[in-house]
Design a protein that fits this description.
Layout: E1 11-12, E2 15-16, H1 24-41, H2 43-59, H3 88-109, H4 121-136, E3 149-151, H5 157-166, H6 172-176, H7 211-228, E4 239-244, H8 251-254, H9 257-262, E5 268-274, H10 289-299, E6 303-307, H11 314-318, H12 324-331, H13 334-340, H14 345-351, H15 357-362, H16 368-372, H17 381-393, E7 399-404, H18 429-439, H19 445-449, H20 463-474, H21 498-501, E8 508-509, H22 511-523, E9 532-536, H23 549-552, E10 554-555, E11 575-576, E12 581-583, H24 588-599, H25 601-604, E13 610-616, H26 621-633, E14 639-643, H27 662-667, E15 672-675, H28 680-695, E16 703-707, E17 713-714, H29 724-729, E18 732-735, E19 742-748, H30 753-767, E20 769-775, H31 779-795, H32 805-810, E21 817-820, E22 839-842, H33 853-860, H34 864-877, H35 884-893
Parallel strand pairs: 3-4, 4-5, 5-7, 6-7, 9-12, 9-13, 10-11, 13-14, 14-16, 15-16, 19-20, 19-21, 21-22
Antiparallel strand pairs: 1-2, 8-17, 18-20
Helix pairs in contact: 1-2, 3-4, 3-5, 3-20, 4-17, 7-24, 24-26, 30-34, 34-35
């Protein structure tokens, strides 16, 4: 092995170290001093000296490598803790009442005949963290701004309800309505934070693990974006995300940490409740999750504050001259700490302190009970306050607080630290008595032994309740609270949509480009234009949106500190601190988080934004479907564009880019209004209606999903007698058959409408079939309206029965109905039961593949010739044509030969 003098490393801890040694003798003196410290005082003393040298080096601004992990002790030393401004005794009483009511609420919800359950252990571990936040940090909205944005950990919701009960924001009836939203209406409470279910209370849905962290990051970024663009003053807003250590295993939890550091989001604080337990066992039984997370966050550029030990450890750590106690803390795995949380003081004395005489000497004067109550930092109000204060005052970086707690804290020995704690939902009478005694609450044994345990309220005029109200008054109002202050937007008139309604003339363009042309016109509107937030996952050029680069520019808080390689070009890449476009890199999850934050700005900050998120349609609902549910839960609004849609339209890219099902996935989301338009004038009507529904006087909490394509086609001008209602409701007759004597109907959507028109022509010229072509702009909306009709009819049998729109619209249309799209058959099959006639669908079921468009469509039998055979097949089934023509048609069009198909148009990325 090479000696120290022979080594020539390139980088150590990110710093270059190949600088020549100009004074080897001095260097050797320093090395000899280190050797002597190790030999004479031991490795722990030498380590301490090295840490002090690093500390002094940073004070002198000497560049030294960053340590990824520090000792398993509090980051903020006792001597640096600030004055605690609260009344700790009153706050303890408040917290005890909150703890009791949270646990009793869940226990009562588990009573016989109800049994809806709930979770009590998570809040029990994090209660002190929330309490300090409520009493000293979380800003409300009463000052007229958005206040702070707090992402509460989903499983902690009982504690938030319990606190709201003490403040008279919720009643006993509300608490007894926990998880009984319909049967206890209007008093029911949702299981977890759900703005859609409790729109005046919750702001952010968080229980889907991992979405809270990523949502908080992009909310903090959206706050900065809105401030930079002078849409809202968010300078006072701080974003808090309360998370679990087990939750951090979700990829969304840690996947976007670097953007928060890169953009210096010091308006963001993560509070990770490290109770060392997942749902069924330890998070890192053989390891140390706090140390692991510290390394991850430090490596990502975050400020890390560890909050591990409470004040009872301070005297012991002050005695630790040799570092033996810190070493024991460093080397004890989490699984053992979990065991210590369930054992006696004597056990801890023997197993934690017992095998080293120096450790035993530290606790010789302590009783077993005192050792048992050596606590964790996440339960100590003063140390929590110090950590929170340091976090909000830190500049230039986001902060994470890693707070060590005990899961099920104060709930008693049957709950605390147990692997099954997460699933335990009910307290026995003995549990309740022990819990009451620990919290010092004036509740009698008789009250606990007779029926359901009572809630506890110290009285509206009590010192505790007045203290709570005073603290919230001083912090700007109650949290959580969702307030909608925004006013309807002045929407542009019909002239704005005129250009795209004229069609494309002799030019062939994709529907993606038709949308982009419309978007350009909308962004020219003085009122509306500045509110558009353009979002794409590194694909603006693919979607033809690079034309926005010079004018709208790409948001970057640091601006553009380099000369762009394409700076001489008309469509040069341009970044700006006030840019309008969000270029989130190759991250659909990040883009969707931006979409949600922008789409809910009308409520969060009282200023509506209109996000337009454009992405490869295959990577939308399929990859980030959980976030689209989050978007619906958060009542966010905006436009979502699944570009390069369809199973056969982007076939050169192959299977993983072939989307034939996102419309079906979109149909499962009640907050999503989905369309599959064929032409520019259809897009114009849909977008105009979307702006009206989402941003007009009677705004709705929905978002619009449009699937658009990259295949260039000629767009017809809007017909003079256009059926605008049909476009919006989901179907209209686009082309009436003009020749032939045998009637039939073809329904098509999106890129399939031109194939249907071609099939219409072939059927007339070669088979004497007079087919009408219907553009089904939204299979999903047709089904949704039909289901609503059936629901009404079910419950109102004596009223006039409603007829679905699709049934009324197609009434009188003769012949069989054949539906076709570039989607799997299940998409058009959604309306089959309400079509007044024989119905059959053609679709691209199965996996996609790389080939020409024509070959792919022939393979799936959805091209014009296949539509012809499909119509003839249904006519033969009805006896209107002879079955012999079917084989003739198949042979004539060579439907069994994929290579015989016209390859179709090539290219057309936009």
């Amino acid at each position: 092995m090479a000696s120290g003098s022979d080594r020539n490393p390139i980088i150590i801890g990110g710093l270059p170290s190949q600088v020549p040694d100009f004074d080897p003798e001095e260097t050797q003196e320093w090395l000899d001093s280190l050797d002597a410290a190790v030999d004479e005082r031991g490795r722990e003393r030498a380590r301490y000296l090295m840490l002090r040298l690093i500390e002094r080096a940073r004070e002198k601004r000497v560049a030294v490598p960053e340590m990824r992990s520090t000792d398993y002790v509090n980051t903020i030393p006792t001597r640096a803790e600030p004055f605690f401004p609260g009344n700790e005794e009153i706050e303890r009483k408040i917290l005890n009442a909150t703890r009791w009511n949270a646990a009793v609420m869940v226990s009562r919800a588990q009573r016989p005949g109800i049994g809806v359950g709930g979770h009590i252990a998570t809040f029990a571990s994090s209660a002190s963290l929330y309490d300090v936040g409520f009493n000293h940090f979380f800003r409300g909205k009463d000052e007229g701004d958005g206040g702070d944005q707090v992402f509460f950990q989903g499983h902690a919701s009982p504690g938030i309800y319990a606190r709201a009960f003490l403040l008279d924001r919720l009643s006993e009836d509300n608490l007894d309505g926990f998880r009984q939203e319909k049967s206890k209406a209007p008093h029911g409470l949702s299981s977890y934070p759900h703005p859609r279910l409790m729109p005046d209370f919750w702001e952010f849905p968080t229980v889907s693990m991992g979405l809270g962290p990523i949502g908080a990051i992009y909310q903090a970024r959206m706050n900065r974006y809105m401030h930079a663009r002078e849409i809202a003053d968010t300078s006072k807003s701080h974003v808090w995300a309360f998370l679990g250590d087990g939750e951090m295993d979700e990829p969304e939890s840690l996947g976007q940490l670097t953007i928060a550091a890169r953009e210096g989001l010091d308006n963001l604080t993560f509070v990770v409740n490290c109770n060392l337990q997942r749902l069924d066992g330890p998070v890192r039984g053989n390891g140390k999750v706090i140390q692991e997370l510290e390394s991850v966050f430090r490596g990502a550029g975050w400020n890390v504050i560890k909050l591990i030990w409470d004040r009872t450890w301070d005297p012991l750590l002050a005695q630790d001259r040799d570092g033996i106690l810190v070493n024991r803390m460093n080397t004890t795995p989490d699984g053992q700490f979990q065991t210590y949380a369930t054992e006696s003081g004597a056990y801890i004395r023997d197993h934690f302190f017992g095998d080293d005489h120096r450790l035993r000497a530290m606790v010789e004067g302590m009783t077993d009970d005192q050792i048992l109550h050596l606590g964790r930092g996440g339960h100590d109000h003063k140390k929590i306050y110090a950590a929170f204060k340091a976090a909000v005052e830190h500049k230039g970086q986001p902060t994470v607080i890693l707070a060590k707690t005990v899961k099920g804290w104060t709930l008693g020995p049957n709950f605390e630290g147990r692997n099954a704690t997460h699933q335990m939902k009910k307290l026995t009478v003995d549990d309740l008595k022990g819990f009451r005694d620990r919290l010092h609450l004036p509740i009698s044994d008789k009250e606990l032994e007779s029926g359901a345990p009572p809630y506890y309220h110290p009285g509206r005029d009590s010192e505790e309740i007045q203290y709570m109200h005073d603290r919230r008054l001083g912090l700007g109002g109650y949290v959580p609270t969702r307030v909608v202050r925004s006013k309807p937007l002045a929407l542009p008139d019909d002239k704005t949509y005129a250009t795209v309604k004229k069609g494309s003339g002799q030019q062939s363009i994709a529907t993606t480009m038709a949308f982009v042309r419309l978007l350009k016109d909308l962004m020219r509107d003085k009122e509306l234009g500045r509110r558009f937030v353009l979002i794409a996952p590194d694909e603006y050029r693919t979607f033809g949106m690079d034309s926005f680069f010079p004018s709208a520019k790409i948001y970057n808080p640091l601006g553009q500190q380099y000369e762009s390689v394409d700076r001489e070009l008309l469509l040069a890449y341009k970044e700006s601190p006030t840019g309008q476009m969000l270029h989130d890199g190759i991250s659909e999850a990040g883009c969707t988080a931006s979409l949600i934050a922008a789409g809910s700005a009308y409520a969060t900050h009282g200023e509506p934004l209109i996000p337009v998120y454009v992405f490869y349609s295959m990577f939308g609902f399929q990859r980030t479907g959980d976030q689209f549910w989050q978007m619906a839960d958060q009542l966010a609004r905006g436009f979502v564009l699944g570009a390069t849609a369809g199973r056969t339209t982007l076939t050169g890219e192959g299977l993983q880019h072939a989307d034939g099902h996102s419309q079906l996935l979109a149909s499962t989301n009640p907050g999503c209004v989905a369309y599959d338009p064929a032409f520019g004038f259809e897009i114009a009507h849909i977008v105009q209606d979307g702006l009206r529904r989402m941003y007009g006087p009677d705004s709705e909490d929905v978002f619009y999903y449009l699937t658009v394509y990259n295949e260039p086609i000629r767009h017809p001008a809007e017909p003079a007698n256009v059926d605008a209602e049909g476009i919006i409701k989901g179907v209209y007759r686009f082309s009436e058959g003009t020749s032939g004597s045998i009637p039939a109907q073809i329904m098509a959507s999106g890129v399939a409408v031109p194939w249907a028109v071609e099939a219409q022509k072939i059927l007339a010229e070669e088979w004497n079939v007079k087919a009408d072509v219907w553009s089904a702009t939204s299979w999903n909306e047709l089904r949704r309206e039909a289901v609503a009709c059936e629901e009404y009819n079910l419950l109102h049998p004596e009223e006039e029965q409603r007829v679905p729109y699709v049934t009324r619209k197609l009434a009188g249309a003769q012949g069989p109905f054949v539906a076709v799209s570039d989607w799997m058959r299940a998409v058009p099959d959604q309306i089959a039961r309400w079509v007044p006639g024989t119905y059959q669908s053609l679709g691209a079921d199965g996996f996609g593949f790389a080939d020409t468009r024509g070959a792919a469509r022939r393979f799936f039998h959805i091209d014009a010739q296949s539509i012809v055979v499909g119509v003839l097949t249904e006519l033969a089934r009805e006896g209107k044509v002879d079955r012999s023509v079917l084989k003739q048609a198949i042979d004539r069009y060579q439907l069994l030969d994929v290579s015989a198909a016209d390859p179709g148009a090539a290219g057309g990325d936009a």
